[in-house]
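TA notes, week 10

Several of you asked for a full example with nothing omitted. So below is the full record: structure tokens for the whole chain, then the designed sequence directly under it. When grading your own attempts, check the secondary structure regions first.
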């Protein structure tokens, strides 16, 4: 079934917000062009990733709710960057053993970050920072998870969304994304550190590349610039990556 934005004619219950005020609900956001556009960008990302499909409801089906979350993003100089809308599943509606099982997902340890950065700086290596756009949408779900249609994009059919890929708010979302990223890095030739499952190391002909992962924030550094660049390019081909250039600030360091 085709998914597309739907015009919501009867949602205006309050006066429109100034565009820089963060809305508290979708009905407010849909009145402001900037926020409505941000919601469309998020919805289009869901469709592009093949995240969900509309299916008929079934008796006894567990259907989780969802909500829109809004944030204004700013550039390092304090100027406006963009309006961000994110569709979040209400994971507290999920039931263990039914629509999720394991939820654990490792993140890089602070001591690992310090050690790798010390090695890189002592050798004069370039340290690159990446950000994964809509990271959780890259993980494929193994369980059957159903979600209500979201305000502003409801086709009025009474159908529900079958989630084919992970979405923010699901209990297993961080784990599914980590499995997707780690699986790709391992297939690329990296191996995981025995002391930190979020540190990936590639050693090839006296060259060493390190990839550090903290959810959707990634550091890539190593002894061979061409191999570092090839790693970044490969990640960008697989996932939606924003290359932030040289590292200046990471998790408060």
């Amino acid at each position: 079934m085709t998914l597309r934005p739907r015009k919501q004619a009867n949602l205006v219950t309050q006066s429109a917000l100034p565009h820089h005020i963060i809305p508290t609900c979708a009905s407010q956001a849909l009145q402001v062009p900037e926020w409505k556009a941000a919601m469309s960008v998020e919805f289009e990302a869901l469709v592009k990733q093949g995240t969900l499909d509309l299916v008929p409801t079934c008796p006894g089906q567990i259907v989780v709710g969802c909500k829109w979350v809004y944030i204004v993003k700013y550039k390092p100089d304090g100027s406006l960057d963009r309006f961000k809308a994110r569709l979040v599943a209400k994971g507290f509606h999920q039931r263990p053993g039914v629509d999720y099982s394991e939820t654990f997902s490792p993140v890089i340890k602070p001591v690992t970050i310090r050690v790798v950065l010390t090695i890189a700086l002592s050798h004069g290596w370039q340290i690159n920072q990446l950000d994964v756009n809509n990271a959780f949408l890259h993980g494929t779900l193994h369980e059957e998870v159903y979600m209500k249609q979201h305000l502003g994009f409801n086709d009025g059919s009474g159908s529900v969304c079958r989630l084919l890929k992970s979405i923010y708010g699901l209990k297993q979302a961080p784990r599914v994304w980590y499995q997707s990223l780690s699986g790709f890095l391992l297939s690329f030739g990296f191996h995981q550190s025995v002391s930190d499952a979020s540190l990936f190391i590639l050693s090839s002909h006296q060259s060493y590349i390190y990839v550090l992962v903290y959810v959707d924030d990634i550091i890539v550094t190593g002894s061979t610039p061409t191999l570092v660049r090839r790693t970044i390019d490969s990640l960008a081909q697989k996932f939606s990556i924003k290359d932030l250039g040289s590292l200046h600030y990471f998790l408060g360091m």
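The first strand starts at residue 52 and ends at 55. Use that as a sanity check on your answer.
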